[in-house]
Amino acid sequence: MKRFMQLFFALSAGVLLLFASVTMAQTYGEIHGRVMDAQSGEALPGANVQVQSTVLGSIADLRGAFVIKRVPAGTFTLRVSFVGYQTASATVRVKTDSVSQARFALRATTLEIANVVVTASRRPEEIQTAVVSVSALTATEALRRNPLRLDAALESIPGVSLVGENVNVRNSTGYTRGLGSRVLILLDGVPALPSDFGNMNWDILPITDVERVEVIKGPASALYGSFALGGVINVITRPPQPQGRFAVRISAGIYDKPYERDWRWTERTLNFNRLDLSYSKRVGRLGLRFSLGRHESTGDRENRHFKRWNGTGKLIWTFDNGSELSLFGAYARDRRGEFIWSENGKPYESPLAFLDYRLALDAYTFYGQYSLRANAWLELKWRASFVRQLTGNQFRKEGDFEPAQGPGADWQVQAQLDSSMSFTLGVEYHYDYAEQRQIGRHFASTISPYLQQIWQPHPALRVTAGLRYDHYYLLPGPTIQTKIIDSRPVSVVNPLPEGNEAQHLSPQLGMSYRPFSETVIHAALGQGIRIPVLGERFLQFDQPIPFRPNGRIVTERSFSFEAGLRQRLGQRASLEATAFYNLYHDLIEPVFVATASTFYATLVNIPGARISGIETSGRFQFWRNRLGLEATATWTDPIITKVNKTNEAPVTLKKGERLSYRPRLIAYLSPSLTFGPISLQADYAFASKLEREQVQLFKDDQRVPKKQLDMRLLYQWQGLTAQLAVRNLLNYTYAQVERNVNEVRNFAFGMMWEY
Amino acid sequence: MMSQISKRLPGLPVLLPLFLVWAGCSYDHGVDPVPTRITGDIIFSGPTPPDHVREASVVVVKKIPPDNLLNDLIISDPLTFDPQKLPGVDDTVHYELVANPGTYAAAGVLWRKKGQPWDIANILSLYIDLQKLAFIEIVVTAEQPIAKVDMIADWTLARRDAIMSGNIKFKNGWRQDTDFFVLGLYSTIPPQEKGEEYVIPFLSGGAAFKLIFQSTPVKSIPYSIEVNSEVGSGIDKGKYKFITLFWKGKNPSLADIRPIGFYNCQSDPLQPRGATAPASSIDFEVDFLKLPDGVKNYKKISKDCP
């Protein structure tokens, strides 16, 4: 390991020296320009301008103007992109010590698609030619559904589904009951999962702060490491707006009564409301963005009430030399009742034993990032981050808050060697610390150098190769720890007192080929890993169901392959289809163990599992863009291929059985009808019924497929959007997690005003 | 194409959502209510409920023993018994349990001690056929959605005012297929003619039992069990005349439970030795070689040790 690190740093220093020497020999000019709407002539502030084959770029300001400095003399292609507009390119010749001009008039596109993504290869690239499956959800698409929280908006993304609070990409995660995730969640590229349980706190992000959400589906561990086994979701926050922007978003609604009269548990009117305020402004070199939010609900059932607050702040300072410093902070506070599961036959009532369960969470996320463009072909980034979550009052115990925190750092070099080859080189470090009543006190660290190369030997062909090395070290801990449970000191055995050390390599290879301008074929394969989080290794508790740690739990590994086709049909339609095949080794899944003496839950490694399938999606615009349709369908076959016959726990898993909590078919249909400022929209979400073997508790309960229809009516006038929405219009009741039915039909009024 | 469709069906884009709303009127609403119930009356008899009782509930199991406590076990909400019930005056409480259609192997009433978790040994009543001494199956179906199950629960069985303790030594190695043990204390010596004779005294308050979970080999285990010091009468009040340990293997059948040793007189190993509650150092030895038949031919008359 030591020799490897020495070699790595020597290589990095060599790269820097090489580019520094090249830099000294360069002469420079500047590119100035404007970006406008082709039809109206109005400026497009926020448009993204990139100089192809370099790391240079800029953002259009309030007047649509942009400036790119320190451009080496030569001929370059500028590419301009903006959501809702066709990407445009132009050739610019730059001379030494002179200013070259470029003007762009962008045509609106009927398909609102984010054209440029950054997550697939850690650098901006066209979504159409990404080598892995990637989808992007724009802020407009997210907000029009008026979700009360960001994760609810993700289900419209092809291949993405929610089971309980777990986000799944192609059924990779299933339902982990709050422990761990196979989808890495990033906030502006910074890991945002807490160190204890590895489950995302979505309340930390008000939706008004989001510019877009990028989802990578498939092998991503080569760039992002652990958790990215199933995919990556990168939530990209809005940069400060050049023109200044103040936004208010209000939403309020009521829950309807359950369809069945016997299920009605209260005569109160159950309701919810949400308020978000945000402000952003760019003044000279300084950009600011702040937001505050409050969200409150009585819940639609017993003990599901909550009160949540959140706040975010972002500062961006641009230096004379073009480098940029970003500082971001977010805070979320959650006080809620915890609905565990319902009584049989009374889906909205909690058993008496669970009625006083409460949960309190305080979560913080900070990051600072400095990016320096050393020259036209070299960019360096340094990032430091800190995620902290405090959990208290869990399961009716009053008391102190218990922290889990994870500082991290990332150092990255992005270099454009020539017009056809670029690479990204970096080292990431992450430290995990958790001190929880149910976990104990543990420390772990991971250091991960990574490298990705992109080669474009032909304008129509892109090839990427990536490799990441993860070195994980779990510090040894005491053999016995004393914890306070039910106000009594209890000695708890540490199942892993000697610590744990592991090394993993994750390679990846991908390609995309564009035989025609609107057709792209892509394929990728790679290996991935997921290191168990501290909660998965050490969690122990006695209620509501006893949970025992498995000290022998090991890292998950995967091999993934996918191949797909992207086809645009002019400006009115786009189609995608991808076939994927994922093999898992030592998949960590919760199981329930019943013996004569006890009944408890624990985690086991399933030696072999496979999730293969097909994902399809399409977007269409008809009737002079008045009628729109989005449709996605993902079919998967999640199978256990190998079990451990010598497992001490009674075998509850069988070869050939389907993996838990993974519906085989997930579909989403979203038509919309627009007449001027008025729009009528619907979302229909479907998930096939789980088989008996796929649920772990209450197996004899009735199971039905998920069918949920939401509808909304929107009115837009200048900066104001008003909305009337009905969720679960048909008052259909289903449960993807046992005895946790979906929300009853509810009606909401929402308004968003931007100035 | 869409413009052609809209010309032929100009109202289609508007009618479609209206159609969906209309379809909702006769739309499948998903999960159905559970129509089947187990219901009945629990008659609490005997003395006033002891102060240490926190709650009592009806418990129904799908199979014996249950594989999965969440799948195979239903517990009612706490029964609203009268904590101040007068001795000799019955207190009747109605209950209703939602139970998925199917067959349930057993039902009973358990009580729970304050500050303690549920304990299978804290039985107030069992739904059994006293003639056959077997659990009565309960069946609920769509055609017969209601099953009426009434039980009498005697608070005498909840009396726990003394502790018996000691040490049990294991002789002749260990059985690898050991699942658990049952410690049984009887106020009269079971006649040993039928297996059910070991069970009946639990239902009348004449015995106490405790499950001891020890599946890994040990040479001895300590025990402590709460018992009723008012059992029996006269000079034998509070006396437990037969203290034994039953063995249960990993075979799921409960018929395999066998006594493998008992508290006896050192000078006469076949003579069960009694002890009056409270008592400690009630030590005895058990022998795995007594399996598969269990201990036999012990003396049926209780006597003091010579």
- The CATH topology label of the largest domain in chain A is Maltoporin, Chain A
Shape of chain B: globular
Tell me the name of the CATH homologous superfamily of the largest domain in chain A. TonB-dependent receptor, beta-barrel domain
Percent range for β-strand residues of chain A: over 45%
The radius of gyration of chain A is: 26 Å
Walkthrough of the structure:
The complex is a heterodimer of chains A (755) and B (306). Chain A has a 22-stranded antiparallel beta barrel. Chain A has a 5-stranded mixed β-sheet with strand order 10-15-16-13-14. Helix content of chain A is 6%, strand content 56%. With 755 residues, chain A is mainly beta. Chain A is globular and about 85 Å long. Chain A contains 5 helices and 42 strands. Chain A starts with a helix and ends with a strand. Chain A folds into 2 domains: 2-106, Sandwich (Immunoglobulin-like), CATH 2.60.40.10; 116-754, Maltoporin, Chain A (Beta Barrel), CATH 2.40.170. The model of chain A has no long low-confidence stretch (mean pLDDT 86). Chain B is mostly beta strands. Chain B folds into 2 domains: 5-157, Immunoglobulin-like (Sandwich); 159-290, Immunoglobulin-like. Helices cover 8% and strands 37% of the residues of chain B. Chain B has 3 helices and 21 strands. In chain B, strands 1, 4, 11 and 12 form a 4-stranded mixed β-sheet that branches. Chain B has a 4-stranded antiparallel β-sheet with strand order 3-2-6-7, with no helix packed on it. In chain B, strands 15-14-18-19 form a 4-stranded antiparallel β-sheet. In chain B, a hairpin with a 4-residue loop joins strand 8 (128-129) and strand 9 (134-135). The longest helix of chain B is centred in the first third of the chain and has 14 residues, at 12-25. Chain B starts with a helix and ends in a 19-residue tail after the last strand. Residues 1-11 of chain B have low confidence and may be disordered. At the A-B interface, strand 38 of A face helix 1 and helix 2 of B.
